[in-house]
Amino acid sequence: MRLTPGTQAGAILAATALLAAGCSAGADSADGPGDAPDPTGPVELTFWTWAPNIEKVVDLWNADNPDIQVVVNKQDGGDPAVTKLLTAIEAGSGAPDIMQAEYQKIPQLVSNDAVADISGQLSDDTPGHFADGVWNAVTLGTDAVYAVPQDSGPMQFYYRADIFEKYNLDVPATWDEYAEVAMMLHEQDPDKYLGTFSANDAGWFVGLTQQAGASWYGIEGDAWAVDIDSPEVTRVAEYWGGLVEDGVIDNKPMYTPEWNQGLNDGTQVGWLSAIWAPGVLEGNAPDTAGKWEMAPMPQWDENAEATGAWGGSATAVTSQSEHPEQAAKFIEWMNTDPVAVQALVDESGLYPADIPGSEDALAEPPAFFSNQENFYEIAAQTAQTTQPFTYGPNINVAYSAYNDEFAKATEARSADAFVAAVEAMQQVTVDDLTNSGFDVAE
Amino acid sequence: MTEPRPQDAPRRRATGARRPASAPAPEPPSTRAPRRGVARFGRQSAPWAFLAPAVVLFALFLAAPIGYSVYLSFRTEKVSGLGLGSGSRQEVWNGAANYVSAVADPEFLASVGRVALYGLIVVPVMLGSALLFALLLDARRTRARRFGRIAIFLPYAVPAVISSLLWGFLYLPGVSPFYWVFERLGWSVPSLFSSNLVMFAVANIAIWGGIGFNMVVIYTSLRSIPSELYEAAELDGASQVGIAWRIKIPIVVPSIIMTFVFSMIATLQVFAEPTTLRPLSNSISTTWTPLMKVYRDAFTRGDLYSAAATSVVIAVATFVISFGFLRLVQARAFGQEER
Question: What's the structural domain count of chain A?
């Protein structure tokens, strides 16, 4: 109905223009290799990334390495960039040399043959720069290395210190205490919530279950094991389902205008989030500067501190790159060199995965948390307690099943529905793996 | 039939007048005249030359993608073992299996049911309001006609994604000015994003955006009715409502049928509104409409093959429904021209 003759004409014009552009672009790239067959000449590498201001980090490299120039190509965040990369791989051309990828996407990229194994190109001490769990995410437990870790997202509990004080609440150290505090707060002011269960953020829920000791996938011999309905995941789902059922925490999705407003006006009093939370809070709740504080996540077992991870990414060399050696050299520098790591913190606001470099780089708390001197001290402590976790090749299917199943459950506001959602996710994920022909362990 | 007389009369008169004009159309005189070879070649190839750009564009941007989708819909990707490393994925022939699973998928069936309900809300309300607005604008004593026309048409000019974002803000109790007012008045209004109201929330956006376009189509056809008809009817003592009911509406039936077909096709393709609202709500699943399921399968799950099969099913269904409907109402829709 919306295709009026005018838009049709416009579409045809646009299509013709695209066709013309496509032809000329094709001609350009045909000329390209002819110009630079010289192996000793400078190489130009393209880098798809979405980290803010990362071009300033890359500039440092370009200034020192005239022979290996890196060109940053900004992408729209994780998922669209991965879709675009997989399309380019399928098409046989158009992929960049270097690609930023979230940890959970790596199995999918490896399985689609989109990233190169760079284990031969890295220095021997590279693995020693990273925590075992993080390194495992880029090797998938094999001898190959598919990427170099860039930043990580250990989870903590962020709360409004001023509101906690006003209602005389203690910072919860265990999940039982969290439930208690949520109830006390909501009873004193029915408009306020200690948090929300967001059915839109599968990565967030993964982090919560990771803390409880879950790992959604595993490799058993030559087969994938799917363990989404494990007792740990079910326990987390039941716990949150109970809170939603009692109405002491909210059931609205995160990252909506309403939720932003809630952070800003004090209706959302706490947020279980990752180390990058200060940036989000600063952007979405600018009026609350200096009122938030950060603490370790509430624990299931007080004697075994644990946390999960939400987000974080690595840098990979794509399988289409003609200069994998140079590309590997660059990503090793960017993620392990002290100067580069400092720049990642200062310019891009990342929490670097590199352990030796981050201690120096993270001396000052983020501006939004200037009230909390020991911000990065706590962060470093929690980061060390990140639990091991394996992502699988169809994590995208599990994530979309999370959106659908937990949307129903949060709307139903019942703990039973939360448990049912976990079971449905397991079913959908296993079915998809089996249908695709993967070997799946029972 | 029990149709009132005043409406039959003009139609017969109109068709009667047209027939003699078209009947004696002779064979084109040009074929008789003899001419030289070069000129004939030039004349014969000219239409092809004129057609060529359209044919090329059609083949490249319509026929080829459709053909490729159909091809993809019969294939699938098979993975071996863990699916890691190169060469572990292979595209293979899959027969009709994608179609079988597409049609049998309960999520797909649920989305079809949802779209049917959505259509039952959107189409009558939208076309009814469009017709009402067109009649009001056409009425003799209407003032500020030009302004009214533009004001009603304006929402159509807002892209669906933008209008969905704007409405999304208005639906969210925490930021909506409406809810702010309701609260001050002491009313408790349920969230429009709750699962039993979300259908209306989405339908409202489509209705709001679609009335203007359909109104213009109906209004244009109302303006082409010769005013003598109204004078004659008024002389016979017909009221304005009577004229609208007995003359105007029957004459614009072909336009209403056309807008109905357009609206039906748009309903089957509803995608932008629910997709834009989805992140704001727990009540819209990723497979809320058939096209959303296609999008999810192709881009979230990376299964182009079953997405292709589902989209072929939707395309065929759209084709069958719209042409089936047109056949059914052919006599009524195009009776004036062909009878």
Answer: 2
